[in-house]
Write a structure and sequence with these properties.
mainly alpha; elongated; two-stranded antiparallel sheet; single chain; 251 residues; 2 domains; 59% helix
Length: 251
Amino acid sequence: MTDREEIAAAGAPAPAGESARSGEGRQAEPPPVTYHGASSRYGPGTHAARERYDELRMRDVLARSYAKLRASGEYDPAKHGAGDTEQLTAAEHLELIATGEYLSRAYKPSSEIDHALRAGATWAQVTDALDTSEAYARVAYRAWADGQHDMLSWTEGRLGMSDAQYAEAVTRAGEPEPGVAKAYAATHRVLCAHADRDGKGAHWLAPGEKCSTVLERGASEAGRGMLAPDAVATYAAMLRATEAPEQEAGQ
């Protein structure tokens, strides 16, 4: 099988009847070779993603080290071990990249930036801590604030950023530079999760796109289907948003 065929196979669902069950009764799934595949597989947590990333990374390092020793004629089984570590396939390299990107975004300190700014830190200090441009940091902070404010709507005020807090955050972020904002939006899609329908019909929205289902329901329910960029916070909000109806049904 060629690398291209292998990647295609890894990214495609297994044919009906061929998916084996493993672990805790879960169906075996193809490895995620895209960021969104890794996000769907591991989100909103990081433990399983860290384990898989470390597994692939260690195997890659060992396989490359053995190959280098053999190429130089220095490989000694008695000293270096069996040396039978398999090199990563093309699909596994892509999985390593996708999983690493998922972890980097999961650990992005969006809320910590808000706390620092509220405590008196300057944008120059924040950008030094992030090692990024001020324009990009401001756009990313504004996007995070937008998500936190949207959360307030679909959790019916139980979680999220209040109107007053959001107004303060928008003021802190300032007017975004159009070019930077466009570049940021192109790589940060939003998941329309339909929390009020137990996730049924969830789909990705393109930058600037609004969910037609939400729009049809009217402004009073706007935002209830949206998942903000902070996966952990929004997952908790989604659970809380459906908690009350479930409790009522159980009474």
